[in-house]
Specification:
Length: 245
């Protein structure tokens, strides 16, 4: 069951994020806060590093701060202060690693792993920024969601990465183009490009989980499942800005 925790968590997270994105901003904020909290708690368990509670707090608070930045920054640069939030979060990880008294032999691995967790958590702010940026016309957000869902469903197939990765990218591109034709006025080429970019990120995380093996705990599996969906937010935001600007 643990081997299925990550992929199932990814699918549920994506559905929840897309549902929130087409509702009021408050709903998206609630979903985002819940996911960065769950990710922050589970990521140290996935890595198996010491000082789990302290680092979980740092990761979750960094993700929450990123969400607040995206929610309250003035247009059009909704993520203007996100690099500063990342920097503070990574600095907090270093402080924790310097002060803790256990696990000195694995201090470098813990620092790098927790810093990656901070960066991933803060990238979730992109979902909030994208919703604010697109306002009423959310066709590109829908295209991204459809492409991502197809990529995740293909990733559930227990085939080698050498087969799943290209198949997932192609099907996600086709799904994005089809969604553009059916639900929007977006041209199929940009929609296909969105599908390729989204699928590449999600299937890269699938490759990582295959190499690393299944998580040793439910919390760790949930965190690994949430990671690609959370970090996808900023990618989708900047792609949408490039296509619309």
């Amino acid at each position: 069951m643990k081997s299925w925790t990550a992929p199932i968590s990814s699918v549920i997270a994506l559905v929840a994020v897309m549902t929130g994105a087409f509702g009021p901003l408050g709903l998206t904020l609630a979903v985002a806060f819940a996911f960065v909290a769950a990710f922050g708690i589970g990521w140290p368990h996935y890595l198996g590093i010491p000082a789990k509670k302290t680092l979980a707090a740092v990761i979750a608070l960094s993700g929450g701060a990123g969400i607040m930045v995206a929610a309250f920054s003035s247009a059009p640069n909704y993520l203007r202060w996100l690099p500063a939030v990342m920097a503070v979060g990574v600095a907090a990880v270093f402080v924790v690693q310097l002060l803790r008294g256990t696990g000195q032999s694995h201090r470098l691995e813990s620092t790098l792993g927790a810093s990656v967790g901070v960066i991933l958590a803060t990238l979730g702010a992109g979902w909030i920024a994208d919703q604010r940026f697109l306002e009423t016309d959310k066709a590109l957000l829908l295209i991204s969601g459809v492409s991502a869902l197809v990529a995740l469903l293909v990733g559930l197939i227990r085939w080698p990465n050498s087969i799943v990765a290209p198949v997932g990218v192609v099907l996600a591109a086709l799904a994005g183009a089809m969604a553009a034709l059916l639900f929007s006025d977006v041209h199929i080429v940009p929609a296909a490009v969105v599908g390729v970019a989204v699928a590449a990120v999600l299937l890269s995380f699938r490759s990582l989980t295959v190499v690393a093996g299944p998580a040793k705990s439910i919390a760790g599996g949930i965190a690994m499942g949430l990671a690609p969906v959370i970090c996808l937010g900023t990618l989708v935001y900047f792609i949408d800005k490039l296509l619309i600007s």
